[in-house]
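Section 3.1: Structural characterization of target chains.
Under the original work plan, the team committed to producing a structural model for every single-chain target entering the pipeline before any wet-lab resources were allocated. The record below documents one such target. The sequence was received from the expression subgroup and is listed exactly as submitted; it comprises 460 residues.
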Amino acid sequence: MELGSPVSAVRSNRVLMGNEVSPAVLIIKDGKIQQILSNSNFTQDAGCEVLDVGDSVVMPGIVDCHVHVNEPGRTSWEGFWTATRAAAAGGVTTIVDMPLNSIPPTTTLRNLHQKLQEATGRCFVDVAFWGGVVPGNQLELQPMIQAGVAGFKCFLIHSGVEEFPHVAEFDLHTAMKQLQGTGSVLLFHAEMDVQPTAGKTGDPSQYSTFLQSRPDVMEVEAIRTVAELCLQYRVRCHIVHLSSAKALKLIQKARQAGAPLTVETTHHYLSLCAENIPVGATQFKCCPPIRGSANQEQLWSALKTGQIDMVVSDHSPCTPDLKKLESGDFTQAWGGISSLQFGLPLFWSSASRRDFQLADVVRLLSRNTAHLSGLGSLKGSLAPGFDADLVIWDPETSFQIEEATIHHRNKLTPYLGFTLQGLVRATVLRGKLVYRDGSFCSEPLGKHLLVPQRTGQAQL
C-alpha cells in the first residue's frame, strides 16, 4: 500500500476498543471510521484496500495538545513541516500549537490569520491552535474564539520571550469576564514569583542551583490563584505542565468545590528526575523544572487515580546555541525540551512497569487531550463517526533514540541514546497512510482544525 493512499480497512489481531483488545477490522469511509467488525463478519469487497497489520496494536492517534511549533518568526527553532513530520513518526495525528514562541504570537485575530497562512500546505498531521492572553488584548479574545481557536494560554511569570508578556491579576479578571459564557478554556503556566531564592548564587552548571531557583511554592501559589479565579468566574481553566505534586491537594479541593479545573503533566516530569541530571547538561532544562524522584512517583500515583487528567509533550525546541552547552550554564540556557516524536514510547516505557494498561494510554494521551481542545467529537476514540486517525505500534518492541531517526528540526534532546519500549510502525490520518516504518507520504495531508464555539462547561 502506497504512502498517502486511502485505506478502506485496517485489520489487526489487537485493536483497542474501549478497555478491551481483540481482533477486529476497522472499516473506513470518507476519512471516518464507518464501522468496526469482527474478523468473521468482514468480507473484503473487490478493490477494497485492506491494511493488515498482524499483531501490531491499533489505537486512536495521539492528540498532543501542548506543542510549540514556533512558526512564523522562529523557524530555525522548529516549524510546521518538521514538527508535524516528527508528530506523524510518533503516532501523533493531531497537535495543538501554542501561541508562543512564534513571532508574532497568536494574541490577535490578525496574528492568528498570519499563522494559519504560514501553516497552509505544511502540515503532515492535523493542527489546531491556542490563542494567547496578554495584558491589554481582552477585546481580541471573542473574535479569536469565533475564528476557531481551541482556547487561550497565559503566563503568571515571565514567559521567556518579550513579545508574550505575563499577566497581572487585573488582566486575569478582565480576560475571565470576556470568556464567561463562551465555553472556551484558559490555560495557565502556573508559576509565580513569590519570594527571593538563594539558588541564583550557586554554581550555575549544577542542576540543583537551577532547581532551587524555581521551588515548589512558585507552582503552589500560582495554582492557588488559578483555583480562586476558576471558582469565582466558573470559566474552564487548565493547568499546563504540572511538575510539583505539592499542588495536587489544592487542585483536588477546588474541583470538589465545583471548579471546572483540569491539569496536565508532561513526559519529562514522568521520565526524568533531578538526581540523574549531569553537571552542565542543559538539554534537561525546562520550566517548571524537573524535580526529584519522590515527587515523580506522586505524579504517577495522581495519574492512576485521575487527579491528573492528561499527559503531553510540551515540545519546546530551540537552536542548540541557546542551550549554552559549552558553558553548561543552567541559569542562562533556554528552558524547553524536545520530545514530540517520542511521547508514546516515553510514556509506555514507564507506565507499563506501573501496571497501566493500553486503555490508560488512550485516556491520557488521546481522549482527554482531544476533549480539552474542543475536538472530543472528532478525535481520540475508535468509534463510528470519529476521524480515522490511527497509531499502529508494537508495545513490546524496544528501540534506541538516535540522531539519524529524529525528525524535529533540531536534534538536541535529553532522550538521545535512551532505549524505549513501544515502536510506532505506521500512522493513519483521516483514513490515509501518512507514515510507515521510517517513510512519509510525499505531500503533507494535514489540515487546520478550527474549533466551533462551545457552550456550557464540557467536562472530561
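The radius of gyration is 21 Å.
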